[in-house]
Design goal:
The complex is a heterotrimer of chains A (220), B (240) and C (226).
Chain A (H helix, E strand, L loop, with lengths): L1 H22 L13 H28 L2 H32 L10 H20 L5 H29 L14 H37 L7
Helix pairs in contact in A: 1-6, 2-3, 2-5, 2-6, 3-4, 3-5, 3-6, 4-5
Chain B lengths: L2 H7 L7 E12 L2 E12 L3 E5 L6 H8 L7 E6 L2 E2 L10 H10 E4 L11 H12 L5 H10 L15 H12 L6 E5 L7 H16 L3 E6 L2 H5 L4 E6 L2 E7 L1
Parallel strand pairs in B: 3-8, 3-9, 6-7, 7-8
Antiparallel strand pairs in B: 1-2, 1-4, 4-5, 9-10
Helix pairs in contact in B: 4-5, 6-7
Chain C lengths: L1 H21 L1 H21 L3 H33 L14 H30 L7 H26 L5 H12 L1 H15 L7 H26 L3
Classes of the chains: A mainly alpha (220), B alpha/beta (240), C mainly alpha (226).
Chain lengths: 220, 240, 226
């Protein structure tokens, strides 16, 4: 089952990327740079999805106090942090070309909030590294996982008010059908890959925990 | 109380047992502080909990006091099943019910250095119930021999005076279960007998007292049962 | 409810009494914030017009920095007294600890601001005076938001290694709406609020304060578990 999922993620991501790069025609206005969006937008979606999973798992942990929920949450944070960082880099490349914003930082609200988001969950990971007691670590993580999810939409809103030069979010409907279809394919492919990575990372985390707790019985 | 009588009443709601611990384990990371403790303590009993440092005495007391959650096992204190382990994930009402009728005295006590003895006592009174008049607080300080130090900052207290203040603080509340962690630590003979007198008063009042200590003689003098912990398990359990 | 109030105010009373007795905390906070303001005027000066334009932001950054330093102390005083854990032994809702500490942090920071704003007005040549009532309202909401979130994270990090570093790492991202709202409203008021933007910022601040307060109060007992 896991192998099939893994194979499926590789095939679908490869197919989505290939179609995005070679099959679909480039956007008339943006040119070849637009192809970056086939990676950028689904990556951003996975980042959001993973942080939502973190919130769900954190809440579940606080209700049931079962360590497995904490492990899923932590696995999801790692994927989310990776995807958020990727989103930022890809967005910066794309923005450079399209907005002509130069090589510097664009004080666009979406870019800024994404950076803040990254910092919030990096904080989560730092706190995790500070405790050797699995229950304590799980409790701290779950609290941050819940709080972060509450604060992020408001951070987003506040930064949006603060300064706005970003174009409205591009939805598949506003795009030519070929582009829309390719985007949908990539969304599906990335979601499958996310699921696969999450399961793999969770299983690894389970083994890490077992190893951590299996310490020699002599160590009283 | 004999085992037979206890078994007979267990089918009904067993109010004669203050503490009932079954298969209690507690882990801190990879270190197991408690590895399966089974222990029943009758209401009104006085138990000395012995064992060298690091055998799990403090952890056991902190679990019984509701501060620490068990990793596994079932812990029932004063008729309430505590959350954690077999007690489920939640139980704010049961922990609160236990806290209303019991307390834990830690080796170093709980006092704010910059406040005077009287102010510390007033704070404790406000935290545990409706306002208490100053005259009654002063009377409580009198009882432990701190009348002259009532208006001195705790910073200037000696170890013995701190212990007296701690006893005064605990005497503000009516307690059914008193957990004392190393109450004789770094006390002189006078201090030891002061703590023992306090234990005697709690016993006379019908409270259950558990004293964890590595000072065997001081701890067992007022105990009617001696429980010895080793490596997080009950190694021996016999009447005093 | 009245029990919660009694216990919260007991903690507030105890902390304020300690503070008035030692005065270490407040004096240190005051000199620290003054130094931050001075550093700003060195870093951005001597352009008086620029400093006046930046004054709203600079003051709030000074408040956040100073406030973060004083937050850590609030729970460390409990550790010195035997541990915040021991407060859980008293019967009743442990949220009293959060509410009491929150009130204490708020009052301490508010007292500091009554000195910091005039000092900044003089240093930066900012026109705080004529807008005092409006600014006081902004400061109220901003300081409340800071205390609500700050007290929560201070309690969360008190048992962590490297808590001095971790507190700002967790706190600053969460403070983004508070800082933006406070600075936005302050700047709008200083400019005479020609676009009517101040009320929008104040609404954001108030909403964030309320939401975070509810969430923090709800989760706090878990933070204190062991």
């Amino acid at each position: 089952m896991q192998k099939i999922l893994g194979l499926l993620s590789i095939v679908s991501v490869a197919a989505g990327t290939a179609i995005g790069l070679f099959v679909v025609r480039a956007d008339a206005l943006q040119g070849e740079v637009q192809r970056l969006l086939y990676v950028h937008v689904p990556t951003a979606w996975i980042a959001m999805l993973s942080f939502f999973v973190v919130f769900l798992m954190s809440t579940l942990y606080l209700v049931q106090r079962k360590l497995k929920w904490d492990l899923v949450a932590a696995a999801s944070v790692e994927i989310g942090v990776l995807c958020t960082a990727l989103t930022l880099i890809l967005g910066w490349l794309w923005g450079r070309a399209t907005w002509g914003a130069g090589g510097g930082w664009t004080w666009d609200p979406r870019v800024t909030t994404t950076a803040v988001l990254l910092l919030v969950y990096v904080g989560y990971l730092v706190v995790r590294s500070m405790s050797e007691d699995p229950e304590q670590r799980a409790r701290w993580s779950a609290v941050i996982g819940v709080i972060a999810f509450v604060q992020v939409p408001i951070v987003y809103l506040s930064v949006f008010w603060w300064r706005s030069l970003h174009q409205p979010p591009s939805s598949p409907r506003s795009m030519a059908s070929g582009i829309g279809l390719t985007m949908m394919l990539n969304f599906a492919a990335y979601t499958i890959a996310f699921t696969y990575l999450l399961i793999r990372r969770y299983k690894l985390a389970q083994q890490e925990l077992a190893l951590e707790l299996a310490g020699p019985e002599a160590e009283l | 109380m004999t085992g037979a009588v206890r078994d007979a009443t267990v089918a009904v709601r067993d109010v004669t047992v203050a503490v009932r611990v079954e298969g209690l384990t507690r882990r801190f990371g990879r270190r197991w502080a408690l590895r399966g403790v089974d222990l029943d303590i009758d209401s009104g009993a006085s138990v000395a909990l012995l064992g060298s440092n690091g055998t799990g005495k403090t952890t056991l007391l902190r679990v019984l006091s509701t501060l620490l959650r068990p990793t596994a096992g079932r812990v029932e204190v004063l008729g309430q099943v505590l959350p954690g382990g077999a007690g489920g994930a939640h139980g704010a009402s049961s922990t609160d019910a236990v806290r209303r009728r019991s307390t834990l005295m830690t080796p170093h006590g709980h006092a704010y250095e910059e406040l005077t003895g009287l102010e510390n006592l007033r704070f404790a009174a406000r935290m545990s119930g409706p306002a208490v008049e100053s005259s009654r607080l002063l009377k409580t300080l009198d009882d432990v021999g701190l009348e002259d130090a009532a208006h001195t900052a705790v910073r200037a207290y000696s170890t013995g005076m701190r212990k007296r203040l701690e006893l005064a603080r605990l005497s503000l509340r009516t307690l059914e279960l008193v957990l004392l962690d190393e109450p004789f630590a770094s006390l002189d003979d006078e201090g030891v007998s002061l703590v023992q007198a306090a234990i005697g008063r709690w016993r006379d009042g019908g409270a259950t007292v558990v004293v964890a200590s590595h000072r065997t003689r001081a701890a067992t003098e007022r105990a009617d049962r001696v429980v010895r912990l080793e490596h997080g398990r009950v190694a021996s359990d016999e009447p005093s | 409810m009245s029990e919660l109030f009694r216990r919260s105010s007991a903690i507030l009373w105890k902390d304020l009494l300690t503070e008035t007795r030692t005065r270490q905390g407040f004096t240190a906070m005051l000199s620290f914030s003054a130094l931050v303001l001075l550093l700003f005027s060195f870093a951005f000066g001597p352009d008086a017009a620029l400093l006046a334009r930046l004054s709203g932001g600079l003051v709030w950054v000074a408040i956040v920095f100073t406030g973060t330093l004083s937050l850590g102390r609030a729970f460390q005083s409990e550790e010195l007294a035997g541990g915040a854990q021991l407060l859980r032994l008293y019967p009743g809702d442990v949220r009293a600890l959060y509410l009491g500490k929150l009130a204490g942090n708020f009052l301490l920071l508010a007292a500091l601001e009554t000195l910091l704003f005039p000092a900044a007005a003089i240093l930066f040549g900012a026109e705080f005076g004529p807008h005092a009532p409006g600014l006081a309202f902004v400061a109220l909401l901003g300081t409340l938001g800071f205390s609500v979130i700050g007290t929560f994270f201070a309690a969360l990090t008190v048992h962590l290694r490297a808590r001095e570093l971790l507190l700002p790492i967790l706190l600053f991202p969460a403070l983004v709406p508070v800082v933006l709202g406070s600075v936005g409203a302050t700047d709008a008021m200083l400019a005479g609020d020609p676009l009517g933007r101040a009320s929008g910022w104040l609404r954001l601040l108030a909403a964030y304060d309320v939401i975070m307060f509810v969430v923090c109060v709800w989760i706090f007992p878990i933070v204190l578990e062991e």
